[in-house]
Amino acid sequence: MRNASSLLIVLAFLSVWEIGARLADQAFILPSPIQIAIKLWDLKEVLIINHLPVTLLTIIIGLAISIVSGTAIAVWMFANPSVRKALYPILIASQMIPVIALAPIFVLWFGYTIWSKVAVAVLITFFPITVNTFDGLASGKKETEELLLTMGATKKDIFLKYSMPTTLPHFFSGLKVAVTLSVIGAAIGEWLGAQAGLGYFSRRMMTQFDGAAVFAPIFVLTVVGIVLFVCVTSIEKRLVKWRNIN
Prior knowledge:
Number of domains: 1
Radius of gyration: 22 Å
Structural class: mainly alpha
Order of helices and strands: HHHHHHHHHH
CATH class: Mainly Alpha
Number of strands: 0
Low-confidence stretches: none
Shape: elongated
Strand content: under 5%
CATH topology: MetI-like fold
Number of helices: 10
Distance between the termini: 13 Å
């Protein structure tokens, strides 16, 4: 029933969009869903073969760096209160800077290589992973840790067998936010400076006033984000079996 309701909402939205676009009759600004679908089919080889792999590589590298660095920083802050007091305000401040303002700087530093786009993706994805992982580590009950100590457990045992399992739901919550943001970060980076990628292709089509071709790669990016989210949710269900995820 829930999936049926979502499908009905999407169909209603697309129907209103289709009618509105047909009435406006300005496809270069507002193409209809049918026009976008036709253009997507015409451009399927260009988008899927030439540009999608570039964007996917940016997303995967950015997420990998964010997962490793974000988790490491979270553990470091949890283990050392002085580090937490020093880094936590900096982490928050890093999210106050508009990404679109930093992207051109990354292009200056790294050129039109993939690393300028990866830098944008990392900038907006490491924060939810770091903060959620830290909150998960900090959510452990002191009473339970003290009980484990009295039973002969070492600090290493407590961290591996209690703190880490307790943190997993928080980590995956941050990761699910990060995977959607990684798609946005890759697209922003490609929009502002790239030689290939779905974001680059969308920007190039905008200069040609081809509205349907602008929306086509955006649709592909949306599908990529949904697939990544579903993959993370599937992994979470396998690793966090004690948590009831509907």
